[in-house]
Design a protein that fits this description.
heterodimer; A: 520 residues; mainly alpha; B: 119 residues; 4 helices
Amino acid sequence: MEGTGQTHLAGIDVVIVAMYMLGVLALGTYFVRYIKTAGDYFVAGRALPFWAIGMSVVVSDIGATDFVATAGAGYTYGIAAANFDWIGSMPAMVIAAFLFIPYYWRSGVFTIPEFLGRRYNTAVQMIHGGIWGIFLLTMLAVMLWLTASLMNVILGWNVHFCIWLIVLLTGIYTFSGGLSAVVLTDVVQLVVMFVGGSALVVLSVYQVGGLGSLYDQIMAKGPAYENHFTLLLPHDTPTPFPWTGIVFGLGLVMATAYMAGNQAVVQRTLGARSEWDAKGGMLFGAALKVFVPLLVILPGLCAIILVPDLANGDMAVPTMIREILPPGLTGLMFAALFAALMSSVDSYLNSSATIWTTDIYGRIMLRLRGTEIHERHGLVVGRVFTVVFIVAAGLGAPLLADRESMYVFIQTALSMFQGPVLAILLLGILWKRANRWGGLAGLVIGVLFTIILHNTEGVFPSEDPFLFVAWWSFVFSVFITIIASLLTPPEPEEKVRGLIFGQVLRDGRIQRVLEGRISG
Amino acid sequence: MNTTNVSSVDPLGPTALPAEEIGAGASQWLSQVFSAPLQVVFDPVNRLLTAMDGERVAIFSVMALFFMAVTWVWVGLKKEYVNLDRPGDSAWYDLRLWTAFAVLPYVLIYLVFGIGRGE
């Protein structure tokens, strides 16, 4: 993005950004008075209402760089890029709300690996926990670096200053208030993000003469733009978005795995004050997600008319901010960018501390001492991990300066676990006969198959076939889990009671057993 | 879903790494070993998908996903399960209605923008 030119914040812009940051800090630290146990810290004392859960799920999913990169994808490919927010949310959030979330919530766990540990065994728990623990931690550093770089390019701010500013702000309130602070600040951040982001949307649409005019002008640009307003592109499209991959790979596998298997998403629902709030939170989030592409894709489409012939689509939003927004609205837009960043950083920080405390430290202590760590101990360890991780992320972020491929590698590596993890989660909930050996084989062999499929050229028509790989790795892992489970002894009846979907639907006594487990 | 590709945000740009060379070598080896057997399995699938590719099939598949989600919640699940712990008896608290209203905008969006591509 060199040569983009920098935007200079006016006094009013600086005041708006500073007020936003101080307000979020004050709100976040307010919740320290309610934190007494690990349960308060990791799952907000199970007191979150549906609206806070829904808003937090949405804002945690959007990073500051999404404003730039997704708008860039809109500039280059058109609205097909919005599939990741649209079919990437629905029906996955409905499936998560009614199939997965109630079982996580009822079993009283803090994390998804913990649920897998109860349903399968400790090996599955630790493998899954280790994968997510490392991913979340590394992503923290990556987010800090990328956003600091973005601010450096757009505003000219020092990269290290940006990193440590975010570390300090998010670190203080996440350390103090745990999930309660994260979720309630997310609520404010969503409002700021929508209001600030809308400034750019409204002004850019106004400048192109309205939505109808935008459509007509882009269509008039010739055959290269004829699919810019089409969501479902042909199977053999040169873009990364063929409809077959979008429906099967994204809609069925990747989106469901993300909404039901991503700790940073699910943790909010585990903090719900009731099962109804947990389910309702996901549905409310799904209703809000429909608006996200308007914020991030529309400016990219308007840029085709307002700032045509950009060498790189990712320059669309920085250029538009500089050329369209007046003082005041620029500050609001940057408050939105910081809101998007901070909401993602605090979520990943809190979730990584939860996984490391529950699924790694807790399991090791259980093995060494023979007892579970108690609530107060868990709270102290969780806070220590929070501080260590955010400082480590701040120190590690500059190390990523010449390691762009690391980000790609991490994203690719995680995508390889999506299909197999969804397979064992789904079978664990739906199929009573799925056992520990099936779960372990489905996860390990499924990931190996995914690695082979992803790295073998010429298997799929697309140059970047990650959507197809996700679908077929899921199918393969389902097959392996079933075969391995049938070849080995079933789990004891008592172990799986209440953890199978059909049991709860048919048998009211099972539900009472579950309620007893949670309260006991 | 967060699917950001932020390669151009890095002001220092990409740098070749030994890990990349190792990855390229591994990919080449995997292709040599597995390409033929995998193509035996996936070529017929790709031919089938290409043959059935079309505007109506695409739209029908997406609508089927949305329709099945709503039908599952309304017909496949018990009302008591869907609305367990609901804070009141008012229709406002019926999550079956919430599901229908949450899906509706997506249906409209795909009906308007899913179709009409320039084939």
